[in-house]
């Protein structure tokens, strides 16, 4: 799996959640539109589905051009796996993996254990996961010394993205702002434009 951040498009991760889609919209068609807009990497969640259904979704999203990462557990056809914050969840031996983190310390622990990337959340108030206080800018700054790409997650929208980039993260991880959007591809293009213009 290529997370070479010299290509600004790889600085954006889309996490899926079909429960947030507007009525009548297909998750596969949404991702296809986002890939056409420049998106490269997608994290398949849909954790209420069976392994068989999630594996089929991985195949469908790969078919439309996405590099697919599975959430929590490895799935056939996925290029990597994004693990939950619980350090007791064992990392795979044969796939690149990342971890959900909620402090700079957790990012450093994940990096020391061999993670290839981490998400750090929440950056801002999130409709998807209400009730969690945003992390301080200092947490994001401290995560930068871990030596792996850190993606800000939680409340990421085109209006908060510039502040997240300014906090020192390597990229953005977005879910609700794209899943709920009337024009998901337009949101992706706006986020990618911000990432392309950032002073990396």
TrEMBL record:
List the GO cellular component terms: cytoplasm
Which residue windows are transmembrane per the record?
none
The entry's keywords: Thiamine biosynthesis
Ranges for the Thiamine phosphate synthase/TenI domain? 13-178
GO biological process per UniProt: thiamine biosynthetic process
State one molecular function term (GO). thiamine-phosphate diphosphorylase activity
Pathway(s) served:
Cofactor biosynthesis; thiamine diphosphate biosynthesis
Query: Per its UniProt entry, which superkingdom is the organism in?
Result: Bacteria
Query: Main role?
Result: Condenses 4-methyl-5-(beta-hydroxyethyl)thiazole monophosphate (THZ-P) and 2-methyl-4-amino-5-hydroxymethyl pyrimidine pyrophosphate (HMP-PP) to form thiamine monophosphate (TMP).
Task: List the PANTHER family.
Answer: THIAMINE-PHOSPHATE PYROPHOSPHORYLASE, THIAMINE-PHOSPHATE SYNTHASE
Q: What is this protein called?
A: Thiamine phosphate synthase
């Amino acid at each position: 799996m290529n997370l070479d951040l010299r290509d600004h498009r790889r600085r954006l991760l889309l996490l899926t959640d079909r429960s947030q889609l507007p009525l009548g919209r297909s998750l596969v068609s949404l991702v296809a539109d986002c890939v056409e807009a420049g998106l490269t990497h997608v994290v398949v969640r849909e954790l209420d589905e069976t392994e068989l259904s999630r594996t089929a979704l991985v195949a469908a999203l790969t078919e439309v051009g996405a590099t697919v990462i599975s959430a929590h557990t490895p799935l056939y056809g996925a290029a990597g796996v994004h693990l939950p914050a619980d350090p007791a969840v064992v990392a795979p031996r044969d796939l690149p993996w990342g971890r959900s983190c909620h402090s700079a310390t957790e990012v450093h622990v994940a990096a020391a254990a061999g993670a290839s990337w981490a998400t750090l959340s929440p950056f801002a108030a999130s409709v998807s996961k209400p009730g969690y206080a945003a992390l301080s800018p200092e947490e994001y700054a401290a995560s930068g010394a871990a030596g792996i790409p850190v993606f800000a997650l939680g409340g990421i929208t085109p209006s908060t993205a510039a502040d997240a980039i300014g906090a020192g993260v390597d990229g953005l991880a977005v879910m609700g702002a794209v899943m709920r959007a009337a024009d998901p591809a337009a949101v992706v293009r706006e986020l990618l434009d911000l990432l392309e213009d950032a002073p990396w």
